[in-house]
Amino acid sequence: MFDVNKIRSDFPILSRKVNGQPLVYFDNAATSQTPVQVIDVITDYYTRLNSNIHRGVHKLSQEATEAYEAARKTIQNHFNAAHAHEIIFTAGTTESINLIATGYTNILQPGDELLISALEHHSNIVPWQMLCERTGAILKVIPMTQLGTLDSNAFETLLNEKTRLIFVNHVSNALGTVNPIEEIIQKGHAVGAEVLIDGAQACPHIKPDVQALDADYYVTSAHKLCGPTGVGMLYGKSSLLNQLPPYQGGGEMIATVTFEKTTYADLPHKFEAGTPNIAGGIAFGAALDYMNSIGFEAIATYEATLLDYATEALLKIPGLKIYGEAPEKTAVISFNVEGIHPYDIGSILDQMGIAVRTGHHCAQPIMDFYQIPGTIRASFSFYNTKEEIDRLVVGLQKAIAMLQ
Ligand SMILES: *Cc1c(COP(=O)(O)O)cnc(C)c1O
Question: Fewest beta carbons within 10 Å, which of 174, 249, 273, 309?
Fold first, then answer.
């Protein structure tokens, strides 16, 4: 059923060489690779359909609009949103979060409380800090534990009737921790707060059901789940999205424009000013189709075997310490080797054609918690193999021998 070699043949980049060695790509948490099924959709768009959407009476515009709206439907079905107009195309997770944070500017009052988790990516921290500066709202942090999980007792203590918004990631990009978002959403709703889930790191591994979760907002980027860069989505309950003001003004987001007064278009167009990334949106749909054709259960099962295999092999290396040992985590391993800077190891691995990430992974508060400058992060995808993990282990042993 799950045939990794067949899957690998869908990804042209996996057969290229880097520094004379076959590429081992273990930086999937930063961006995933793109299968030919998605590349073909982008090529086909510019070969056959290229035109502006929602505007033209002509055939190309109609076909492009249909393809773009069909992608929105695909995304709606994938996330089980109640309506297609609750799916807003954005440039990605970062823009989706900024859209919401900007939208709450005139809704919050000074002294309102916003809860964030200690495990967040900078793009789910900074827009809220900026919102607090504009409104006088107060940002409070749900602390983390040594294992890299959220402290749920502390979360309950922080919750109160002043809590207006809670934002947490579904999965931490730096550690792979899967957060208990169902519980967070329920407890948040119990005090009347709205909850935004950053799904950028979860969506390559997990198929979320936004209605079952009862998420108020759920955001993600296409490029982490086999789609192109520069496109993503914001899911929001229509009752909430209808209350928010538009994010940007321009074409496509209006109903009527005069110099006296402009009225805004309905969802989703209210939030989609200007010509969007049309090919990207269509390819986002194709990426979800591709991943669903493999199946998220098969992906999760296979990736768990990679994670176990790699964890066991890496822990045999003397002086190696893994950060993030949550009982439930995706296939991400963040680690350091005693006495060696992560960057030095990353550079030597690169010489061997092995791509890992080194640094703070846009999550400096986590690094501060562990009092380290950064980690080496190997993040796996369903197209990686145990043989590639063996190459990482050999590469690490060589790098350590050179650097110690
Ligand atoms: C990648 C990532 C982001 C940012 O996504 P962009 O595509 O750069 O906007 C935010 N949060 C998490 C958890 C991520 O992994």
Answer: 249
